[in-house]
Amino acid sequence: MPPIMQWVYEQKNRGGVLIVVDPRRTDTARAAAIHLQLTPGATSRLANGLLHLAIEERLIDESYIRERTEGFDELRRSVLASHPAYVERLTGIPLEQQLRVVRLLASSESSMALTGRGAEQQSKGTDTVLSLINLMLALGKVGKPASGYGCLTGQGNGQGGAGARTESRSAPWLPAHRGSRAPRRRREDLGRPRRDPAAQRQERL
User: Fold this and answer.
1) Looking at the whole model, is its pTM more than 0.85?
2) What is the pLDDT of residues 35-61, one digit of tens each?
3) Residue 84 pLDDT > 50
4) How many CB atoms are located within 10 Å of the residue 29 CB?
């Protein structure tokens, strides 16, 4: 993602640590201080393994968890059921590297897990994203400046923009596709009963 790399390099110049999780040795991975070259499709296993280590190492933010989350006891039981050696075998990431990463994430004043679209588009994409969010919540990072979890799209209109374009076609009072008569037409449209956009889409189909 070339546009964001300027900020990645800025982070490095300010003393930040870039950790890349990717089976491939990409340009981004080559720029990283730590490259976790894991088994393809094992991202959720790695995230849960890091949470296991965070719990064992007492790196989690207990007060944050108590005040701002729910269901952590169930999550704790789930991730502690997998031994770190088992996670190492599944992911291909040595335990020493896992420990270094989770200690960095926990001890840094700000830390963020950023993914591209690959994490959510795996066969168990929902589980993968939730495991990353759970990790950052347990470390008490979500809601703090420059911290938490985020997903980067490949283009500016990849998600929300697409929805806005759909609605501009469905709602005739939006001006996205109007010409010089738009102001008068908007007044006319606003005086009419509003039609259900879902019904309009169904008619077009």
Assistant:
1) no
2) 999 999 899 999 999 999 999 999 999
3) yes
4) 18
One-letter-per-residue 3-state SS of the chain? CHHHHHHHHHHHHCCCCCEEECCCCCHHHHCCCEEECCCCCCHHHHHHHHHHHHHHCCCCCHHHHHHHCCCHHHHHHHHHCCCHHHHHHHHCCCHHHHHHHHHHHHHCCCCEEEECCCCCCCCCHHHHHHHHHHHHHHCCCCCCCCCEEEECCCCCCCCHHHHHHHHHHHCCCCHHHCCCCHHHHHHHHHCCCCCCHHHHHHHHC
The letter for the amino acid at 12 is K
By the 10 Å C-beta count (0-12 exposed, 13-18 middle, 19+ buried), 10 is classed as exposed
Token pair, residue 141, equals: 């990072």
